[in-house]
Amino acid sequence: xxxxxxxxxxxxxxxxxEASIMKRAVDKGIVSVHFHNLREYTSxxxxxxxxxxxxxxxxxxxxxxxxxxxxxxxxxxxxxxxIIYMTPDGETLNxxxxxxxxxxxxxxxxxxxxxxxxxxxxxxxxxxxxxxxxYVLSGGELGAAVLCDAIVRLIPGVLNNETSALTDxxxxxxLAPPVYTRPATYKGMEVPKILLGGNFPKIxxxxxxxxxxxxxxxxxxxxxxx
Length: 226
Ligand code: ADE
Hints:
Layout: E1 2-7, H1 10-13, H2 20-27, E2 32-37, E3 50-52, E4 60-62, H3 64-77, E5 82-92, H4 95-101, E6 106-111, H5 119-124, E7 128-131, H6 141-152, H7 163-166, E8 185-186, E9 189-190, H8 200-218
Parallel strand pairs: 1-2, 1-6, 5-6, 5-7
Antiparallel strand pairs: 3-4, 8-9
C-alpha cells in the first residue's frame, strides 16, 4: 500500500511512522509513506497556504490552489482508490472502516487545519471524510496517524503473528476478553484457573463469555438489540 499524506505540518506526523508497527511495515516494504508539505505547492512568495474566510468569521481556511496542485500532481502519477480528508465532521472511524481501507492500494490523506479547507476541495477531490471521534483536534495530522496505524496493522504480513489482529477488540463486534501473563499469583491476586488448565475448547468458551460480559458492561451499544 502507498499512503500520500498532505499536510502543513509534516514534522508532527513523521515520528509515528518511524517506530513500532508502522516502521516495521515500512521496513518490510509492505507500506510506503510519502509526506507532502503544502507550502511547497504555493505560488506566492510568502508560501501562504491559508486565508480569511469569505463572509467573515474567526479562523483561517486552507486555500484550494496548493491542494489542487499537490493532488493533481499525485493523480497524474497513479490512480488513487481513496482521497481522504481528516475532519471532525467526517464519518467516525471504526474497525470495519479500517478493515475496508486496509485492502486499498493507493490512498491520499489530506490533513485539515485551522477552520478546515475551502469547501470546493471537498466537492472536487475528496472521496471519503473521516473523523477519529467527536472532539476537535488542532489539525488532521494526529487523526491521520491514528487512521494509518489502524489500517497498516491489518495488512497481511505486518503483524508477526497474523492471527493477533483477528483477536483484537471489535474484530468480532465485541471488546477483547481480559488477558494475563506470568506470574500466576501476584500479591495474592490469582490468574483465573481455567487459563492454566490447558483445556483449549474450555478456554475459548471462557474468553467468549468474558468478551460478551465486558462488552455488555462497557459498550452495550455494540451488542445487537434484543
Ligand atoms: N481534525 C480536527 N479534529 C479532527 C477529528 N476529530 N478527526 C479527524 N480530523 C480532525
